[in-house]
Amino acid sequence: MSSAFVLHPALVLIAGAFLLPLLRGGVRNFAVVAIPALALAAVILLPEGRLWQTNWLDYSLAPLAVDRLSRLFAGIFALMALAGGLFALKQHSRLEISAAYLYAGSAIGVALAGDLVTVFLFWEFMVVGSTLVIWSAGTPAAWAASRRYLAVHLAGGVILFAGITGHIIDTGDASFTAMQADSIAHWLILIGFLLNAGAPPFSAWLPDAYPEASWSGMVFLSAFTTKTAVYVLLRGFPGTEILIWIGIFMIFYGIVYALLENDMRRILAYSIVNQVGFMITGIGIGTEMALNGTAAHAVSHIIYKALLLMSAGAVLAATNRRKCSELGGLFHSMPLTTVCACVGALAISSFPLTSGFISKSMVTQAAFDGHLQAVWLFLAAASAGVFLHAGIKFPWFVFFQKDSGLRPADPPMSMRCGMVLFAFLCVAIGLWPDLLYGLLPHVVDYVPYTVAHVITQLQLLLFSGLAFFVMLNYLKRTPTITLDADWLWRASGPAVTRRLAGAIRQILARMHTGIAAATALASTVIIRHRRPGGLLLRSWPSGNMSLWVMVLLLSYLALYYME
Amino acid sequence: MKQEHWLDNPENQRWLWRGFLLTLALTVIIGAVVDLHPHFAIEGWFGFYAAYGFLTCLLMIVVAKGLGLLLKRPDSYYDQDNRDE
Asked: Which residues of A touch B81 (CB under 8 A)?
């Protein structure tokens, strides 16, 4: 089956997930760090090519296939599991890290899959892992959210399965290569992929479910589902034009909803949709520059979004509060967390010297190169909007603004290590972009640090910051939520079902009374005629009989005569 | 009154604001002086990026507020539904 003996990084993490619950104390803590480290080493050491090949039914499958793109994504997933595990070390729930490693391992499995059957298998394992991560928060709200999350993703899985089946029937080939959105099967695959990316109209599952996870759970959740979707779209549908517009919609959806949101973790959840929108747009543009930019931005985004969520998680763990209207002034007692959150905020806003600056600008550059002025105008406005909704809003309302009087301390050592590691990477990638550029799928011919680029980016961002403070009165947080498409299945759907059920019950009740009356009538008629002396059971005098025989004979005679 | 942190001092906050506004002015001035090798014609306008960043942000806030009028609900809106499940 295998051409060479190699360790499959996905199986390392998944086996580790099942091993962890058996361990205790220091050994367990060591394993939490060692398992993803081993997986990361395995990713780095894998040679390129279709390493495992096997035949199943009539199809040749490749459960382990490596190229530059899959190694990049598998690598960042393993690194994310490592930092997340470190951050979650003090988590009371013993389920969470195991579930997260199953989830991360499956994401790596998707990244290293050379065929669609393997993609689908790991895709579904991811759903199981991520649902378990949400469950392990152990609150009623998390339980309810996880059920909605599961329903959406199982439906997505069915759509994807139908698409993959159709593709295999059409082509007879299961291998995972670039496709065109040109047949029903391919459209179904595209829809299945996009659902996990948080694309409209079903973006709502993400800000609904993720923020209900525990303080460490959401750090894992932010990284894998949406970024595996980006990976499979990158490999499966590069240059599909509709993705440009889907991406731009996601970008502005994320900004507008985040601006209205009060819950700090839901702000960050909306901003995941926003950032994935940049990547989807890049995939739609589809040039080498755009695809490189998308891959680079996925890596940067995993790191700074995890960092932002770690700082939000540290605040949540310390204060048990998530609403901006109840937070503020935390920089007094949480200096390290504040600094890390600000580094993450600068990186997501693509400030020069951070990872976002050197990755997002490649997508913008691709819009320049393709002379897509409308797309570029949208992207530039969106860059300013990112600073507005995530870059300033999150740190400002949580760590600064009015003093809430809360004075929680910085989190314990393990959480600080996770944060500092990722804060360091945000800056390191920004300072030495070639670290990341060297790993991208295509050769990079791009210089991010030109005077023009730095100055224009600073103008865009700083004036966006000015707009924030000028409009601060209009951005005051209110204890509200904003309705989204999930209203359909959380409020109106159930209400319609309840109405419908009521109406059906009424109709049934009416039919019941109708049937009962009819049955009663029929019974009385039957009883009337069947009782002794009734029409059918009455005894008839024989004189009657002879009278009728005489009538018959006479009519016979009359008929015969007329003939 | 003793300040807990130097950022709590209104005097320092004023200095931060001055620094911020100075940086804003500097970016526009430098942008006008150096060659930005624009890809599109509108990029060449004086202070285009500054104006565009500011105005689009205002627009986004206005749109968000407008949408909020329509779609905002108290954050206990779905609680009933959570209890049901």
From this structure: 144, 490-491, 494
CB contact under 8 A, B72 and A480: yes
Between helix A288-319 and helix A355-369 the angle, nearest 10°, is 150
Inter-chain contacts counted by CB atoms under 8 A, chains A and B: 149
Query: With contact defined as beta carbons under 8 Å apart, do A384 and B57 qualify?
Result: yes
Instruction: Please report residues of A whose CB lies closer than 8 A to that of B28.
Output: 459
Identity of the residue in B24, B61, B74 whose CB atom sits nearest the CB atom of A471 = B61
> How far off is chain A from B22, nearest CA to CA, in Å?
11
How confident is the model over B35-62, as pLDDT tens digits? 777 888 888 788 889 999 999 999 999 9
A343 close to A351: Cβ distance less than 8 angstroms: no
Alpha-carbon distance of A426 to A124, in angstroms, equals: 31
Give buried/exposed letters for A548-563 (b at 16+ CB in 10 A, else e). Answer: eeeeeeeeeeeeeeee
Packing angle of the helix pair A140-171, A116-135 (nearest 10 deg): 180
By C-alpha distance, the chain B residue nearest A452 is: B36
Residues of A in contact with B12 (CB under 8 A): none
What letter does residue A503 receive in the DSSP assignment? Answer: H
Which of A128, A149, A125, A117 has its CA nearest to residue A52? A117
pLDDT tens sequence across A126-170: 999 999 999 999 899 999 999 999 999 999 999 999 999 999 999
- Residues of chain A positioned with their CB less than 8 A from the CB of B5: 331-332
Q: At what angle do helices A184-197 and A217-236 cross, to 10 degrees?
A: 150
Judged by CB atoms closer than 8 Å, whether chains meet at B27 and A143 is answered as no
Residue A71: CB atoms within 10 A of its CB come to: 19
Which residues have a Cβ under 8 Å from the Cβ of A310 and sit 6 or more positions away? A87, A219, A340, A415, A418, A419, A422
Q: What is the C-alpha separation between A284 and A352, in angstroms, rounded?
A: 26
Where do the structural domains in chain A lie, given as residue ranges? 255-480, 491-562
Cross-chain residue pair A480–B67, CB shorter than 8 Å: no
Distance CA A112, CA A67 (A): 8
Place of tokens 């959210």: A145
Min CA distance, A382 vs chain B (Å)?
9
Asked whether the beta carbons of A156 and A192 are under 8 A apart, the reply is yes
Which residue, A115, A127, A126, is CA-closest to A50? A115
Distance CA(A299)–CA(A196), nearest Å, equals 17
Q: Note the pLDDT tens digit of each residue in A456-477.
A: 999 999 999 999 999 888 888 7
**A499 phi and psi, to 5 degrees?**
-55, -50
Q: For residue A385, list chain B residues with Cβ-Cβ distance below 8 A.
A: 56-57, 60
pLDDT bin (cut points 50, 70, 90) of residue A11 is very high
